[in-house]
Amino acid sequence: GVSAALVFQQEVQTPSTQLRVVFDGDAVLFSDETDQVFREKGLEGAVHYERAMEAVPMGEGPLKAFAMHLGKMRKKFSQEKSPIRTYLVTARSGRDMGVRAIKTLREWGLAIDEAFFMDGAPKGPILTQIQPHIFFDDGLHNIQGAQEVGVPSAWVP
């Protein structure tokens, strides 16, 4: 498939010394399998599913290929001098549901500079700290929250 996202128009002032790209996890980098379990069985069901599937890498999401291309470019530089910095900012909890996400990234060979497991908290405050050039998410409420704090955003349908 082809990676695609709807970029919302917004005027921003971000430093240009390093390209900073933020990805959501489920339904963006990863498949939406856990989101589907969450919708059907709630948080407890999703946590149980993630624990049962911990050793199995998650499926690919619509922006995995794009993230992999960024990763290949990053590898051409030392970590300190890389002009690209990537982040994972996900609603998952690090304790209960983050292990599989990290294992999946490792299985793919995709190095993410920083990962933030928000445990359902709003993403806006951490995005304000990161000051990304673009934030990709499948949740329109997260896109709206990012726009409210001046972060350029793209909705991944």
From TrEMBL:
<protein>
    <submittedName>
        <fullName>5NT1A nucleotidase</fullName>
    </submittedName>
</protein>
<dbReference type="GO" id="GO:0000166">
    <property type="term" value="F:nucleotide binding"/>
</dbReference>
<dbReference type="GO" id="GO:0008253">
    <property type="term" value="F:5'-nucleotidase activity"/>
</dbReference>
<dbReference type="GO" id="GO:0005829">
    <property type="term" value="C:cytosol"/>
</dbReference>
<dbReference type="InterPro" id="IPR010394">
    <property type="entry name" value="5-nucleotidase"/>
</dbReference>
<dbReference type="GO" id="GO:0046085">
    <property type="term" value="P:adenosine metabolic process"/>
</dbReference>
<dbReference type="Pfam" id="PF06189">
    <property type="entry name" value="5-nucleotidase"/>
</dbReference>
<dbReference type="InterPro" id="IPR036412">
    <property type="entry name" value="HAD-like_sf"/>
</dbReference>
<dbReference type="GO" id="GO:0009117">
    <property type="term" value="P:nucleotide metabolic process"/>
</dbReference>
<dbReference type="GO" id="GO:0000287">
    <property type="term" value="F:magnesium ion binding"/>
</dbReference>
